[in-house]
Amino acid sequence: MIRAFGLALGDILEPRVRGIVALVAMISGLVYVVIGALLWWAWTGVDVGSWMGADFGLGWLGAPAEWLVDGIVWLLEALIGVLGILLFIAVLWLGFVVVAQNVAGLFLDKVVDAVEALHYPALPAPSQSFRQAIAAGFNLTAMVIGVNLLALPFYIALSFLPPLNIVMFYLVNGYLFGREYFEAVVYRREVGQAAVARWRAARWRWIVAGAAIAFLMTLPVLNFVGPIVGVAFFAHLVHGPGKAPAST
User: Fold this and answer.
1) 216 to each of 41, 105, 113, 210, 224, how far by Cα in Å?
2) What pLDDT, on the 0 to 100 scale, is given for residue 50?
3) Which whole number is the average pLDDT over 56-65?
4) C-alpha torsion angle, residues 207, 209, 211, 214 (rounded to 10)
């Protein structure tokens, strides 16, 4: 598995893959900046005084109410500002995973093409269509978002037990990334019971590999290339030396 990961990292420097990396990084960065600017514009447009009311029900105090209201508004704006910055950073950090995965999903099949042509030229031509490959890429994004939203209450509940919430995060996303990247490679030539048997024969191998990619996707800057390294990694696991068996 370590050898396969090392090969995947090396593949991003290959000319065919390097161009895809640059394109994905450029598009993802542009979308990311636009989304960030829109979020910041929306947040800075919040008027706490208007939102909470003109005098917070303190009008009965008369003249002293004005400075008291100003003080309350200032404190609320400061608190919301700090919380807003933290939320802004968190949303952008998590959002980038979604943006990068969506953009990379358009090119994952091309990455596997390049890896297979470079390392495994004797393989038969894939039977999966480009449309099916694109659909698989977006399916991964939908699964990651949906399952993590469902798991969010458990992440929050386990936040008081840091090791457990981290373990749960990587188990959940290890399964998701492992299953979807496995399918992105294997379904190019195998479908039905053959593919299911191959997954079951080494499911923990795929889940551990998926957890490694989930970890990579949470690292700033490296998450630019996370999906591309991930699918190249799985191409080597599926086709390379020491590959998992194709059946039980």
Assistant:
1) 30, 16, 22, 10, 9
2) 54
3) 50
4) -130
Long-range contacts of 66-75 (CB under 8 A, 24+ apart): 73/48, 73/49
Distance (Å, rounded) from C-alpha 46 to C-alpha 172? 36
Q: What is the pLDDT of residues 66-104, one digit of tens each?
A: 566 566 666 776 776 666 666 666 566 556 666 766 777
State in Å, rounded, how far the first CA of the chain is from the last one: 20
Domain borders along the chain are 2-239
Could you tell me if residue 190 is left (phi over 0), alpha (psi between -120 and 50 degrees) or otherwise beta? beta
Task: State which amino acid sits at residue 8.
Answer: A
pTM for the structure as a whole: 0.72
- Crossing angle of the two packed helices 15-44 and 64-105, in degrees rounded to 10: 160
Residues 6 or more apart in contact with residue 76 via CB below 8 angstroms: 48, 52
- The HSE-up count of residue 197 (CA atoms within 13 Å, CB side) is 9
206 with 236: CB under 8 angstroms? no
